[in-house]
Specification:
Blueprint (H helix, E strand, L loop, with lengths): L2 H19 L8 E4 L8 E4 L5 E3 L6 E3 L1 E4 L7 H10 L3 E3 L8 H12 L8 E6 L4 H15 L4 E6 L5 H4 L2 H12 L3 E8 L3 H11 L4 E5 L8 H12 L3 E5 L16 H15 L3 H10 L6 E5 L3 H12 L6 H13 L9 H4 L9 H13 L3 H9 L5 H6 L4 H6 L6 H12 L1
Parallel strand pairs: 5-6, 5-12, 6-7, 7-8, 8-9, 9-10, 10-11, 11-12
Antiparallel strand pairs: 1-2, 3-4
Helix pairs in contact: 1-11, 2-11, 3-4, 7-8, 9-12, 10-11, 14-15, 14-18
């Protein structure tokens, strides 16, 4: 690409983001203006979010997936996602205590012809075949559809324990009945071990795992992604913004300066830091899609603009992201529960509590944090308060003050 072309691309990207970021709802046609070519120059191209193969399943999916919890009143977000080509929709039976599935079902009632264009994924947190049947049937009713494109076991912690031969038989039956097209799981902790084990099973179509500019630099994660890609498993990245679990720490007080430096540099190029964090993940072709919570039009449109922009991040910006990740690592839990949980005296679900803290302190979403906290064993508060976390803190590669953070989370949520 020539320098002139690059400038034009950047200008158009900025223009698109500027228009979209203002909350406009008329953004399915993205203007491409060649300011250097006279009256022939102005042209309009109907751009939509591109697709990628989902592993070796034979299915192509949009590289941006609509995630998070949307309400009945958010129908316009679904409509515009559809028009912008964000046709991979992710939900779970638990999201918003079932409200998210119902909101999608309401959309399909009004726009039934859109169902065939959507790659629809839902999930349930159980490995019991009878419960899976019940939960899938309930989801299909709420979603107002006869099938989902992919069904996940939600929040898998140990593939060997949870993806049993009974689950395999269940998935095969559900496929034969036409209720699901593909099957897989989501992983928020010990992701790499789960991915490596799953790649050997031979019957997992897709995995959605925590994956972002922090985690993708880890050798174990690189290897797990490569192995899954070779096994033909479709990969969806989630938690790509790598929100802090502990942004109240003095130890990451430099976060503001680092974030400002990075943001200023990216803005000169036409990106926000949030868009750069998406773009760096898309640079790995083994990642089929990014599932992103997009609770409003502004975020949907900014993310879609990033997905449509083909310009790659510069090495300088990748380095800035890396530096930022390293300097703020003590505010981010990497989900490596196998390191910290076995070395505390009482059984404390450290990684699960970190996830609660991430929603509470990182996203400011107390409702979601409470939903997750209430699913933990009732004795969690008691065990956290009586546990010495010093050995776990020594093992933590992120250098998180685990005891302090968990006690703060308990104080807020219990
Ligand atoms: S607290 Fe530390 S060791 Fe434990 S899961 Fe998080 S990053 Fe890993």
């Amino acid at each position: 690409m020539s320098t002139k072309d690059e400038k034009t691309t950047r200008r158009n990207f900025l223009k698109t983001v500027g228009v979209l970021g203002a909350g406009s709802i008329v953004a399915t046609t993205v203007p491409f203006v060649n300011a250097t070519a006279g009256s022939e120059a102005r042209k309009s191209a109907t751009e939509i979010v591109p697709k990628r193969p989902f592993g070796k399943t034979g299915v192509d999916v949009s590289i941006l997936a609509l995630g998070g919890v949307l309400k009945m009143s958010d129908q316009l977000v679904f409509r515009m996602a559809c028009k912008m080509g964000v046709t991979y929709w992710d939900t779970a039976d638990s999201y918003g205590w079932g409200k998210n599935e119902k909101a999608i079902g309401k959309y399909f009632t009004k726009f039934p012809n859109d169902r065939k264009n959507i790659f629809l994924v839902t999930k349930a947190a159980t490995s019991d075949p009878a419960e899976l049947t019940e939960k899938l049937n309930n989801s299909l009713v709420k979603l107002n559809t006869s099938y989902v494109d992919m069904y996940f076991i939600h929040y898998v912690k140990d593939v060997k324990d949870e993806l049993t031969s009974g689950v395999k038989a269940w998935a095969e039956k559900a496929k034969a009945e036409g209720k699901i097209r593909l099957f897989g799981f989501s992983a928020h902790k010990n992701m790499e071990a789960s991915m490596l084990t799953a790649a050997k099973l031979g019957w997992i179509d897709g995995i959605m795992m925590s994956y972002n500019y922090r985690l993708m630099a880890k050798d174990e994660m690189k290897r797990a992604v490569d192995v899954c890609a070779k096994a033909g498993i479709g990969l969806t990245a989630m938690k790509t913004q790598a929100a802090f679990t502990a942004n109240f720490y003095a130890s990451i007080g430099s976060e503001t300066d680092d974030a400002l430096k990075m943001t200023e540099s990216l803005m000169k190029k036409g990106y926000t830091a949030e868009q750069a964090k998406l773009k760096v993940v898309w640079e790995n072709p083994a990642i089929a899609s990014i599932c992103s919570a997009m609770p409003n039009m502004t975020i949907l449109q900014a993310n879609a603009a990033a997905a449509m922009n083909k310009e790659k991040l510069s090495e300088n910006h990748k380095n800035l992201l890396n530096q930022y990740a390293q300097r703020t690592c003590s505010g981010y839990c990497a989900g490596c529960a196998n390191l910290c949980e076995p070395v505390v005296d009482h059984h404390v679900p450290i990684s699960d509590l970190m996830r609660c803290a991430m929603y509470r302190f990182g996203y400011g979403d107390r409702e979601k944090a409470l939903e997750l906290f209430k699913a933990l064993p009732p004795e969690t508060k008691r065990t956290v308060l009586r546990t010495d976390f010093s050995e776990a803190e020594k093992r933590c590669p992120q250098k998180i003050e685990i005891g302090r953070l968990l006690k703060a989370a308990i104080k807020d949520l219990a």
